[in-house]
């Protein structure tokens, strides 16, 4: 899942990004509304965690732009205000969910995952295919009933492949969904991660390489 965190409190923004990365999400971070709009114009995000009171360009205007562009991106709006009228106003702007500060990180993570599921065709919370069972919320993977321990990026790649439901997922798509914007697009990190993932999942192999196209399960 690709997430953009937009928050002008840099310590909070960086802490949220670090936490979401530990949950196997690819996360970009910006600290003002103008930078957020630039990223949204360039990258495809599943979810934007958007502080409402942003400098340069207000969070409301960032939210409006996402709606005007007709993007499938879901918006989780954050605010320090506990006023119900502010929450209603934010939702009316086009935000998909609203979370007041301070918040529990576990709740933020759950809301981001729930919104991420709404950017694609509805799938069950626990994904199952080819003897593999993947639970994004618990960060657990089983193959034929045996638990498989995966690093965050391996888990992220497997989740993207599982959500493909048998379709071919290109290396570019995996790079887009499982890594952030600081990753070199010419790196071989996708190939190396898929190789490691194959080894950990065991025999017989379930990840198929489609020459010149990508990978599928």
User: How many helices in DSSP terms?
Assistant: 8
User: Can you write the helix and strand succession as a string?
Assistant: EHEHEHEHEHEEEEHHHEE
The 3D shape can be described as elongated
Mean pLDDT: 91
Strand adjacency order, main sheet = 2-1-3-4-5
Name the quaternary structure: single chain
* Main sheet overview: 5 strands, parallel
List segments where confidence is low: pLDDT < 50 over at least 5 consecutive residues: none
Percentage of β-strand residues: 15-25%
How many strand elements?
Answer: 11
Q: What is the gyration radius calculated from CA atoms?
A: 18 Å
As a percent range, the share of helical residues equals 40-55%
Q: Distance N terminus to C terminus?
A: 18 Å
Helix/strand/pairing category: alpha/beta
């Amino acid at each position: 899942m690709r997430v953009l965190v937009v928050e002008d409190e840099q310590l909070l923004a960086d802490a949220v990004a670090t936490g979401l990365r530990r949950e196997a999400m690819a996360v970009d971070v910006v600290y003002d509304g103008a930078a957020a709009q630039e990223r949204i114009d360039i990258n495809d995000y599943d979810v934007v965690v958007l502080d409402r009171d942003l400098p340069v360009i207000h969070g409301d205007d960032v939210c409006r732009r996402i709606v005007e562009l007709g993007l499938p991106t879901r918006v989780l709006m954050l605010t320090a205000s506990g006023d119900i009228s502010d929450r209603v106003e934010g939702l009316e702007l086009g935000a998909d969910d609203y979370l007041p500060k301070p918040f529990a990180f576990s709740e933020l993570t759950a809301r981001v995952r729930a919104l991420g599921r709404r950017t694609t065709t509805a799938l069950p919370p626990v994904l199952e295919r080819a003897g593999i069972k993947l639970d994004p919320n618990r960060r657990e993977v089983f193959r034929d009933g045996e638990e498989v321990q995966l690093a965050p990026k391996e888990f992220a790649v497997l989740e993207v492949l599982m959500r493909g439901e048998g379709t071919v997922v290109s290396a570019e798509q995996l790079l887009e969904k499982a890594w952030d914007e600081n990753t070199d697009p010419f790196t071989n990190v996708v190939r190396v991660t898929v190789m490691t993932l194959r080894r950990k999942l065991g025999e017989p192999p379930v990840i198929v390489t489609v020459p010149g196209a990508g990978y599928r399960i």
